Amino acid sequence: MNNQLPFRNNCFETYGYDILLDDTLKPYLLEVNLSPSMACNSPLDLKIKGELIKDIFNLVGFVSNDSKDLTNKVEKNPLRPLTMTNF
């Protein structure tokens, strides 16, 4: 039985890094999240995660003709994680 993924380029993972900056802006890595939440609980969350999602899709070759459409869908239901089925 072959336990290897035949087409390694067909998948990817997103990691979340929690970093603390001290008063001299020295970064400290607090933790790495293997499954970061993509829920948007604030306008800042929406901006950061919306851009992240847009960049991820651009990297895999899925380019939206209207990036405002994605933002509008997230704004309508910010607590619902985005998946390919609710696009």
Tell me the structural class: alpha+beta
Radius of gyration: 16 Å
Q: How is the largest sheet built, in terms of strand order?
A: 1-2
Q: Strand share of the residues?
A: 5-15%
User: Order of SSEs, N→C?
Assistant: EEHH
The percentage helix is 25-40%
Question: Can you tell me the overall shape?
Answer: extended
> Which runs of at least 5 residues are low in confidence (pLDDT < 50)?
none
Q: How confident overall, as mean pLDDT? A: 76
Number of domains: 1
Number of E-state strands: 2
Key terms:
87 residues, alpha+beta, two-stranded antiparallel ribbon, 2 helices
Tell me briefly what this model is.
31% of the residues lie in helices and 15% in strands.
What does this structure look like?
With 87 residues, this protein is α+β, with helices and mostly antiparallel strands. It contains 2 helices and 2 strands.
List the helices and strands and how they pair.
Blueprint: E1 16-21, E2 27-33, H1 43-59, H2 67-76
Antiparallel strand pairs: 1-2
